[in-house]
């Protein structure tokens, strides 16, 4: 008998051990306490409500008004029977001026988001890591900016922007977006930079890197997760932003999606085109949902793994 | 390559009145391997960081070779440092990690690749050059950190407890590797550790620090054979030296009924009427209880090659003293006398025996000042 055969018979003789499908939890941790039960119920209710809303939105965008009101939660039928399932979307796209608005919004949000992060990241790095005198106070000052509701400063903001002829102007709105988003983003990123290990900076200093080089070659790549988070949060916020767009933009050609939807709402309701209205909402909501689903995976955990130990 | 000198170097931390490092005077020769050792908070890491330029110097100066580097930023000091947790750049490959300094100092690409390759070969890292640190084991990361230091061919290596994250077996292995690598490269090295075994085995010389003050700097043999004060006596050597207080009489000092004579020089140096007698565990001879200091075995530690007996004194005058400042728990535990006997000896718990210090193995310290009395 060869060695291989011996091994084979030995393997056959030993009964195959099967691992449990799910390893047993630590004792006590799985107990269903009242608080845990309550928490579970709240979480599931919340999730169910949101999923229902999303379903209602998407289903509604394929329905005719009669269906929307009579059978709000059934699957759409009539438009599919007619063979024109996308009629609402076509209506919304053609009547709301979404074509131009889409382009405007994508460019505006992209430019503003990139600028916000590009300005905030070095600011946050300087505030949290360079040990500048008074950086604590300055960070708090930036944080105060988060506490000021932007609605309260709209009028002075409009007046001053009007003085420099930047109302009804996309560049003006871009400036306003960037300015109003900075406090939150800087604050978010200071927390993120603070959590990075000190030794990496010291190692870079000994390796001969200047502070700028350290920021660019070492800290920034490590902070990628934080930067992407900041970008997503800002992009979603600005994409949905309506009030400032409403105040600052007057010409149709400058309208952002949210602003265009606002105009479209009046027209659609007047024409009882509720299906088209819901389709219009879906056109605005879905890109952000997709963006989130795609990028959420890229909020990389474990990028700092392996730095130590 | 260069020498390193600390000249009255002092460092205060914000909000603490006692300096973290107090007037340190230390000369490190060119090519020497110096180990800084001491308990936590003794200022050894601060000393290293001052030399690296990561920490300011409040008083005094730091010199590397013939340059005063006290106010130079780290990058102008021509030093390389291995951090306790390695501080590898997690987003760079092993090759990029090792070559980061060369890249910054604009070494041409071909030359850079060659030097990275050399360092990798020296440290057995060639097959990992394309990996990121997260995909390496602890020992490999430690070697990458070493590689990052040696690729620079700096004037001084600084190492801040580089082995403390490795498991016991690997630590012993790496200890020898680092020491032999240093001897081969001949680069002045300052090595910080809290582990006295590491200090004794690796260093050409060992500097013992306590509370920011240099206690003694000597070769391992000198440190072990002639500790300068009670702290060094208790800190160096494992298990620690037995320290037994005794009063000075006209004849000398008595230890368990025996008298040890004092030389005139020793009497001269005394500042009080008490001394502390130090005997290392291997400095005892065992005999019957009537003939030596009577003790009873409390614990037997069998190591195979050696055996350690932890004994309590039967005579109250032979009470062990604390050699280092102790925590509350340590103070409460009874202080035993440690005896080293050959391995596999038949000693049992509860057995009684007598101890006699071997000739030449008695260290005498002034109890009041803690200083060693002249031999």
UniProtKB/TrEMBL annotation, chain A:
Any Gene Ontology CC annotation: plasma membrane
Protein's UniProt keywords contain Transport: yes
Keywords from the UniProt entry: Cell membrane, Membrane, Transmembrane, Transmembrane helix, Transport
Record domain ABC transmembrane type-1: where: 102-295
Membrane topology: Multi-pass membrane protein
Gene3D superfamilies for the chain: MetI-like
InterPro entries hit by this protein: MetI-like, MetI-like_sf
Protein's recorded name: Carbohydrate ABC transporter membrane protein 2 (CUT1 family)
Organism of derivation: Labedaea rhizosphaerae
Automatic annotation (TrEMBL), chain B:
CDD domains referenced in this protein's UniProt entry, alphabetically: ABC_MalK_N (cd03301)
PROSITE patterns for the chain: ABC_TRANSPORTER_1, ABC_TRANSPORTER_2
InterPro entries in the cross-refs: AAA+_ATPase, ABC_transporter-like_ATP-bd, ABC_transporter-like_CS, ABC_transpr_MalK-like, ABC_transpr_MalK/UgpC-like, Mo/tungstate-bd_C_term_dom, NA-bd_OB-fold, OB_MalK-like
Top-level division of the source organism's lineage: Bacteria
Species in which this protein is naturally found: Labedaea rhizosphaerae
GO molecular function, one term: ATP hydrolysis activity
The keyword Nucleotide-binding is annotated on this UniProt entry: yes
Domain ABC transporter: 4-236
This protein's GO CC annotations: ATP-binding cassette (ABC) transporter complex, substrate-binding subunit-containing
Record carries keyword Cytoplasm: no
Keywords, sorted A to Z: ATP-binding, Nucleotide-binding, Transport
Pfam families: ABC_tran, OB_MalK
Name the record gives this protein: Carbohydrate ABC transporter ATP-binding protein (CUT1 family)
């Amino acid at each position: 008998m060869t060695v291989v055969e011996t091994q084979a018979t030995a393997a056959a003789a030993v009964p195959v051990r099967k691992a449990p499908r799910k390893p047993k939890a630590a004792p006590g941790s799985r107990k269903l306490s009242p608080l845990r039960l309550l928490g579970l119920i709240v979480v599931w209710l919340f999730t169910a409500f949101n999923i229902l809303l999303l379903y209602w939105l998407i289903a509604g965008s394929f329905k005719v008004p009669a269906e929307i009101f009579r059978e709000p939660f059934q699957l759409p039928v009539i438009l599919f029977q007619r063979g024109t399932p996308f009629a609402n979307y076509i209506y919304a796209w053609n009547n709301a001026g979404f074509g131009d608005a889409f382009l405007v919004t994508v460019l505006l949000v992209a430019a503003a988001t990139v600028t916000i992060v590009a300005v905030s990241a070095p600011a946050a790095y300087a505030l949290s890591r360079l040990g500048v005198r008074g950086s604590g106070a300055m960070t708090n000052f930036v944080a105060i900016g988060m506490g000021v509701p932007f609605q309260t400063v709209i009028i002075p903001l409009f007046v001053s922007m009007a003085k420099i002829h930047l109302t009804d102007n996309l560049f003006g709105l871009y400036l306003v977006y960037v300015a109003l988003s900075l406090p939150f983003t800087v604050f978010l990123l200071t927390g993120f930079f603070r959590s990075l290990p000190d030794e990496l900076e010291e190692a870079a200093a000994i390796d001969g890197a200047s502070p700028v080089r350290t920021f660019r070659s070492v800290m920034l790549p490590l902070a990628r997760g934080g930067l992407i988070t900041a970008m997503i949060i800002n992009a979603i916020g600005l994409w949905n932003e309506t009030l400032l767009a409403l105040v600052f933009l007057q010409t149709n050609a400058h309208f952002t999606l949210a602003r265009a939807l606002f105009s479209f709402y009046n027209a659609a309701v007047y024409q009882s085109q509720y299906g088209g209205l819901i389709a219009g909402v879906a056109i605005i909501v879905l890109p952000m949902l997709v963006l989130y689903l795609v990028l959420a995976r890229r909020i990389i955990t474990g990028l700092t793994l392996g730095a130590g130990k | 390559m260069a020498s390193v000198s600390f000249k009255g170097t002092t460092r205060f931390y914000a909000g603490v009145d006692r300096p973290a490092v107090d007037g340190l005077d230390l000369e490190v020769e060119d090519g020497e391997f110096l180990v800084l050792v001491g308990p936590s908070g003794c200022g050894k890491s601060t000393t290293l960081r001052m030399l690296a330029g990561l920490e300011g110097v409040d008083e005094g100066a730091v010199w590397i070779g013939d340059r005063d580097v006290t106010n130079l930023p780290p990058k102008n000091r021509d030093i390389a440092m291995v951090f306790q947790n390695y501080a590898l750049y997690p987003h760079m490959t092993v090759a990029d990690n090792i070559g980061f300094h060369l890249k910054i100092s604009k070494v041409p690409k071909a030359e850079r690749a060659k030097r990275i390759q050399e360092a990798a070969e020296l440290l057995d890292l060639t097959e990992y050059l394309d990996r990121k640190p997260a995909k390496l084991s602890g020992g490999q990361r430690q070697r990458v950190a070493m590689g990052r230091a040696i690729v620079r061919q700096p004037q001084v290596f600084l190492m801040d407890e580089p082995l403390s994250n490795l498991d016991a077996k690997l630590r012993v292995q790496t200890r020898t590797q680092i020491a032999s690598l240093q001897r081969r490269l001949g680069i002045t090295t300052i090595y910080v550790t809290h582990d006295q075994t590491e200090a004794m085995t690796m260093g050409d010389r060992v500097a013992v620090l306590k509370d920011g003050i240099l206690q003694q700097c000597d070769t391992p043999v000198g440190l072990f054979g002639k500790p300068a004060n009670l702290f060094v006596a208790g800190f160096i050597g494992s298990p620690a030296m037995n320290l037994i207080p005794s009063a000075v009489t006209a004849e000398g000092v008595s230890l368990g009924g025996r008298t040890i004579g004092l030389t005139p020089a020793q009497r001269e140096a005394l500042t009080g009427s008490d001394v502390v007698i130090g005997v290392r565990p291997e400095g005892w001879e065992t005999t019957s209880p009537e003939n030596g200091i009577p003790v009873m075995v409390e614990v037997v530690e069998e190591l195979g090659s050696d055996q350690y007996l932890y004994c309590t004194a039967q005579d109250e005058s032979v009470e062990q003293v604390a050699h280092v400042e102790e925590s509350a728990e340590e103070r409460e535990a009874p202080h035993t006398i440690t005896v080293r006997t050959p391995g596999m000896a038949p000693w049992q718990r509860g057995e009684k025996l007598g101890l006699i210090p071997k000739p030449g193995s008695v260290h005498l310290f002034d109890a009041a000042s803690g200083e060693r009395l002249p031999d």
